[in-house]
Amino acid sequence: MVNSIVTQFKFANGNHDLMVVTKDCKIKFYNSHRFEGMLQREIANCHRGCISSLAVSHNSSYFLTGGQDNMVKIWDYEVQKTQPYFFQSFIGHSY
Predict the structure, then answer these.
(1) What pTM was computed for the model?
(2) Which long-range contacts link 34-41 to residues 24+ away (Cβ below 8 Å)?
(3) pLDDT tens digits, one per residue of 53-89
(4) Which of 22, 27, 67, 72 could disulfide-link 4, Cβ–Cβ 3.0 to 4.6 Å?
(5) Non-local CB neighbours of 30 within 8 Å, separated by 6+ positions
(6) How many Cβ atoms from other residues are within 10 Å of residue 16's Cβ?
(7) Which of 55, 54, 60, 53 is nearest to 15 (CA)?
């Protein structure tokens, strides 16, 4: 997490993975169980603008992001390990 300002974080995958949202609109994944907190992967430019919300499903199968672009994205937690931009998006409206 060097030179990154953390805005949010959530634990996932049985509290073994730490998902960190940074101010520069990246989601970074750290594994605290097997690799002693090393960065495993990151997703850059998830939204146009900042990521304002991050949530993880109870079984850690999915995670959800909301951004300043009025878009909600639902990500498949396991698939995004091999295909980093695998998500379904929902467009918000101003009203």
Answers:
(1) 0.80
(2) 41/81, 41/84
(3) 999 999 888 999 999 888 999 999 888 777 767 888 9
(4) 22
(5) 17, 18, 20, 37, 38, 39, 40
(6) 13
(7) 60
Place of tokens 């730490």: 18
Please give the domain boundaries of the chain with CATH numbers for all domains.
6-90 (2.40.10.480)
Write out the two tokens for 92: 């918000």
In terms of phi and psi (left: phi > 0; alpha: psi -120 to 50; beta: otherwise), the region of 49 is left
